[in-house]
Amino acid sequence: MSLENHNTYAVGISHFFKKELGIKICFATVGNKEVGEKVKEVSDNVLVSPTIDEKRTQYEETSPLLIMGNFYDLKISKDLGFLNFLFADIPTISFLSTENGPYMGFRGASYLIQQVVNQVYINLFIETKGEMGGQISPGEVRWRTSAEEALRKIAEMIPHFIRTKSVKKLQKKAEEIACREKSEVTLEILKTVADEYTPTRFKTRFLEVFEENTAGPCQQATPEEDLSKLPFSMEWDEAAREMIFMVPTGFRTQAVSGTEKYAREHNCTRITSHVVDNYRKELGF
Prior knowledge:
This protein is α/β, with parallel strands linked by helices. Helices cover 58% and strands 7% of the residues.
């Protein structure tokens, strides 16, 4: 959440979001130091009378899910491609505010919550085509197993509320690069995309994922060794077997048994990537 608005709103809304709703304030801007000290009670990133360039830098570094501000903030955020914006300033001749605003009292609080939820979820539904928690489909571009595993680990590090949108963006950019290079998506391509398209606060954590995947084969069993320990009783094609390695080690035996049970219930005689995808969707993954 990013707040750039009138001092009264900056204090009241930031405290309400943090203390009542548990929403993190990425950064806030205020008009004087006294107000800034009050907002610092709920946010570590408070700017006093920042320039437009300073605001633009904050947007790029923190990548807020929702921005609240005035018309100048709206212009900056739209120029940078941010979709979720709520007007939160003293009403002017160019902005009409009736009984639901300003955000004061019980009615104002309930209206504010409604607006926040609508802005965030509507855009997420548009971005993900209604599949809020949907699994990222393989698509037409082939992914190496190491890259798929890295993407899965990255997804686990991203807050649930923005996970689907963020992972879909990483997937799309990685596949665009792979198409240009006429190759499959490799670990190197995914690392390049993660470095370029993720907020600064995530980059260090993401780097750990790529260090783990390049640590060397001596630190983990080969695919052949892992496969020999799994209870396969049906025929699996190569793509379906590779998808098993996206499952955490401790759950792979259960994943194989569950997938084969699902296949039998649906009269499938062979396990394909399509069967695995359908089973995962049924489980909600």
